[in-house]
Predict the 3D structure of the following.
Amino acid sequence: MVDMDPPPVAETTISSSSISTVHPDIMENHIFKLLDASALASASCVSSQIYSLASDETLWTNICNSTWPSTDNPRIRRVISSFPKGPRAFFSDSVTNPDTISTTTANSSSSSPVNRDRTSRLISAVDIYYQKRHVFSKVVETESFGNRSPFGVELLDPEDTVPARIPYPVDERMMLELGDRFTLSWILIDPVRRRAMNLSSYKPVIVERRWLPGEQVHMRYGWVFNSGPGEEGSATEYVKFGISLTWEECQSGVMHVTGVSLDLEDMYGNQISGKESLAIIQKGMAGNRRSVKGREEEGRRRYEEYMEMRRERILSVISIKEPERFHHSLYVYGAFRLFIFATLGLLLFRRFF
């Protein structure tokens, strides 16, 4: 993880005296600004002096803004500054992979027991890139979620579109290339509990062309994780955050975004209600985090395993219900035969008597 503790007092002897001779302004303005997040976190382990300089909030704010342009927003900036270690903690939350959900983790100091009524407001910070070129960013704040209504976030109104200046795919080769060239990040932020997690696989797990209601290119991103102890065998043993990105063709022959949405599904593909989703989100934000490497491959692997488990669950339900349907059909067939014979008997009785 990026968030590291300061080194012990007995520091490494990489010539700390030579480091102390470098003016702090030179370190901050001419050296640290050139480092990415991983290099900056590694440099902070050299000494307590370097750790203090490398933890500067401005440095990590700039890293967050360059990685996710959506975070360069007054509302987001205020929320990030309220995190226990400011933008550095936010970056660590948002760049690592949400793993198996657990409410008792090393990060539990900034978390509290799951409270479904406490979190009723979430912020979504979304960024889309095409070949590392920024295409689209948006921040949406969702105020409340109903007890029974499905959890979902829509970034765009139905009449809104976002031009992207990207050629619309005319054949399957171009369709396949789109999956390798588009990157999407969806950071979900809890401003009350001061935690965040990235729900995207970065690269799409599905790219397909749809024809109804009109020709569209549909991309599906997402992240799957386990709901933790006590959920074994339940419909929410594994849950999938699904992100849908829809493109249509403009008259000029380029693509434009017509839909960006987030939902949450259980093991049977049913959308989970708002209140239950909030509890899952809280546990996910308080859960374990893994290395940032291989997020695209890990996201695809988890998605494929989830789809296979979902297929097996649905087939097992069908196999259990089929005998019941068979016996029900026999009962209906027998009742129908009895009705026919009774009707014929009544007709014959009236005819001869």
In short: The two ends are 93 Å apart (CA to CA). The longest strand covers residues 238-249. Confidence is low (pLDDT under 50) at residues 9-16, 102-112.
